[in-house]
Amino acid sequence: MHLHKYEKVWLTFGMASLVIFLLIIGFAAFWKGTHPQSHLETIDQNNVEAHDSFKPENLGLTEVADGKYKVNIVASAFNYDFGVDKDEKPVKTIRVPQGSTVLFTITSKDVVHGFQVAGTNVNMMVEPGHISRYEAVMKNKGEFTVVCNEYCGIGHHQMFGKVEVY
Ligand code: CUA
After folding, report:
1. Which of 73, 80, 111, 138 has its CA 20 to 30 A from that of 48?
2. Looking at the predicted structure, is the pLDDT value of residue 35 above 70?
């Protein structure tokens, strides 16, 4: 088969463009850790309890299947509400076994907050009126601090929690 000179040029150009495109996407997705949009669902910020995920009894950690968990959280100035334990005390630490898949679902009652589990890929912006979700596999054992990484007011630095992977 004989290829015309210009056919070769355009074929090479096309292939090169494809390779460059894939490299850029790969760089953004795997090296920079860019996620798809995680806050497409909306909610009434003045009545978050009306949503099933944010009813007081549904907050915090729930095992949904073997090795699969969900964590529902309500953020507000300046607290993460992970529900209460058996003694009605606020939960501050979420404990899951290593290798488990955890779906974090969070919303805000007031202003924009952040929800970052430092040392993992979990890092979301939490906007009032929106529901943010992110599912992560907890690959490494350890204690990971949950921090608010959006400045939300005077008590911004007091917003924290902990995820313990055992
Ligand atoms: Cu909430 Cu900063």
Report:
1. 138
2. no
Secondary structure of residue 142 in the 3-state scheme: strand
Q: What is this model's ipTM?
A: 0.98
Cis peptide before 78 (omega within 30 of 0): yes
Q: How far apart are CA 14 and CA 135, in angstroms?
A: 36
Q: Is residue 33 predicted with pLDDT exceeding 90?
A: no
Is 94 exposed, middle or buried (CB count within 10 Å of its CB: 0-12, 13-18, 19+)? buried
Pocket of ligand 1 (CB under 6 A): 78, 113, 148, 150-152, 156, 159
Nearest protein Cα to ligand 1, atom 1: 113
Query: Distance, CA 83 to ligand 1 centroid (Å)?
Result: 18
Write the DSSP string, 52-79: GGGSGGG-EEEEEETTEEEEEEEEETTE
- The per-residue pLDDT for range 85-126, each reduced to its tens digit, is 999 999 999 999 999 999 999 999 999 999 999 999 999 999
Give the angle 111-114-117 at the CA atoms, nearest 5°. 155
Q: Measured between alpha carbons, how far apart are the two ends of the chain, in Å?
A: 62
Contact 122, 116 (CB under 8 A): yes
